[in-house]
Amino acid sequence: MLVLPRLINFALATIKTMGIDESHGLSHAFNVLHHSHNILESEIKTHPFLDNQREIIYTSSLVHDLCDQKYTNEYYGIAHIHRHLITQTSLLPEEAAIVEKIISTMSYSKVKKDGFPTNLGNYRMAYHIVREADLLSAYDFDRSIIYNMNQVDPTFQQSMTNAFELFDSRVLRHNQDELFVTDYSKALSKQLEKDALERMDKWKSILHNKNMSNNY
């Protein structure tokens, strides 16, 4: 099993170097890691081979945004990750290649454009675990606001508008678009969807308060 603290330190150093904002920073990586762990545990009885793929799943969860094209050149990011995995972890070269394949094909935009990769063999479920964990993390409405303020438009009003539009057009459609394959994620996503809608309503209540409306 990989030494998680060293991998986490690598992720943090890379996040700082690349100027990745908090919406895709270490706390997000932690959330994806925990979601991946929970999905893995829910699937391991029917897919016992996954126990031997924990290192790949956990690694992919922690480094998946270190090659995000919103923050860096994807090929540079993958190469940077590759060097670390080969020299500083116990992953075999072929296992590192699977990590790189997972993180370079799991994003929402690539799945919508290209579909799921077909050349992952026995690692197909590992791919879905990490991909779904990232989708589950997307139900955090405040995270969407923070991303928009850092990367799209610094004004709160426009970032809030962008976040509402993103959730209406994308995040709240994950189940409708059949993006989840595991029972665990299908069930949890429905609860997270309810939580997100409640959060959105809370924001509307705050912003439409007569004492706060002028600031919005």
Q: Overview of this structure, please?
A:
- The protein has 216 residues and is mainly α.
- It has a single domain (4-207), classed as Orthogonal Bundle (Hypothetical protein af1432), CATH 1.10.3210.
- The protein contains 10 helices and no strands.
- The protein has helices at residues 4-18, 26-43, 54-63, 74-88, 93-105, 108-114, 124-137, 141-151, 156-169, 183-207.
- Helix 3 packs parallel to helix 7 (124-137).
- The longest helix is centred in the last third of the chain and has 25 residues, at 183-207.
- The chain is globular and about 55 Å long.
- It starts with a helix and ends in a 9-residue tail after the last helix.
- The model has no long low-confidence stretch (mean pLDDT 94).
Give the second-level CATH assignment, the architecture.
Answer: Orthogonal Bundle
| Helical fraction | 55-70%
What's the mean pLDDT score? 94
Number of domains: 1
- CATH topology title: Hypothetical protein af1432
Provide the β-strand percentage band: under 5%
Which sequence of SSEs, written as H and E, runs from N to C?
HHHHHHHHHH
Largest sheet: none
The tally of helices reads 10
Shape: globular
End-to-end distance, in Å? 49 Å
- Name the poorly predicted regions: none
- By CATH reckoning, the class would read Mainly Alpha
- Provide the gyration radius in Å: 18 Å
Structural class assignment:
mainly alpha
Say how many strands there are: 0
